[in-house]
From TrEMBL:
This is 2Fe-2S iron-sulfur cluster binding domain-containing protein. PROSITE patterns: 2FE2S_FER_2 (PS51085). Residues 3-96 form the 2Fe-2S ferredoxin-type domain. The lineage of its organism: Bacteria, Bacillati, Bacillota, Bacilli, Bacillales. It holds the Pfam family Fer2. It comes from Paenibacillus glycinis. CDD domains: fer2. InterPro entries: 2Fe-2S_ferredoxin-like_sf (IPR036010), 2Fe-2S_ferredoxin-type (IPR001041), Beta-grasp_dom_sf (IPR012675). It comes from the Bacteria.
Length: 115
């Protein structure tokens, strides 16, 4: 069975086989998700959030629940552990380096407007 997953904020969607990890689906969609452990639930860099309470993702496994230490209550999942089994939408946080550059550029633009 194939299922669709959409990644926010880009809005990119991809059809994958049910049981595919969110991380692998993101790679297929060309959506970058940071990882250092390559999907071994060790680096905790692949956090994504579910903007809607309805989820097409598998329930947390014990390892993911332990690693998230309560963050799962706010909809956070590890992309390398969560698997897609139905229509799903997940939000990928902005890369921290990109976010810092974007903020710096916005500050610079504001300063330029003052002159
Ligand atoms: S890729 Fe490292 S924890 Fe998910």
């Amino acid at each position: 069975m194939n299922v669709e997953i959409t990644f926010l904020p880009s809005g990119r969607s991809v059809i994958v086989r049910a049981g595919t990890t969110v991380l692998d689906a993101a790679r297929k969609a060309g959506v970058p998700i940071r990882t250092r452990c390559d999907g071994k639930a060790a680096c905790l860099m692949c956090k994504v959030t579910m903007p809607h309470s309805s989820s097409g993702l598998t329930p947390l496994n014990d390892n993911e629940r332990r690693k998230l230490a309560g963050l799962d209550r706010s909809g956070t999942r590890l992309a390398c552990q969560a698997r897609v089994f139905g229509r799903a939408v997940v939000e990928v946080p902005e890369d921290p380096f990109r976010a810092a550059v974007r903020k710096q550029m916005m500050r610079q633009a504001e300063d330029d407007e003052l002159w």
